Amino acid sequence: MEEAKEVEEAESLPNELEEKAKLADGYLSQLKYLQADFENYKKMVAREREMYEMCATETLIKNLLPIIDTLECAIASTSNNTSFEEGIALIYKDLITVLGKEGLKPIAAVGEKFDPYKHEVIITVIDDDHPEDTILEEFEKGYMLGSKVIRTAKVKVSKITNHEISQD
Question: 90 and 75 in contact (C-beta within 8 Å)?
């Protein structure tokens, strides 16, 4: 009787082993899905943090732009080159350098072709000496943060007179 019991147990061992292998494969598959989900979660959190930091940086820089404008006006209006004026110029240079490291770049304007994404037309003038839509003057500097325009440049743009031929 004991031999029959041992034979029965020996015959059921491969079935048990197969069941346990299937169970282990199921756990391994589930673990792999959880690991992939966790990796995706980490990437999503990193992207969200990066976006938050970029928005915070953008807000700070937008608030500093009027100060930059004021410093530029102060530097442009100086003529004596006193140490005070040189100090203001150094502060301006340092501020621009720090903001440049954060990704701030001025938008090129005078002499460039008008780009509605980067420039805002304040005045158009008829000027046959320049190609149409050439920026002649910049009233307020525009800036980009990385590849995003955070303030358009306010500009004067040339237009060419239309030499229309009247048909009689």
Answer: no
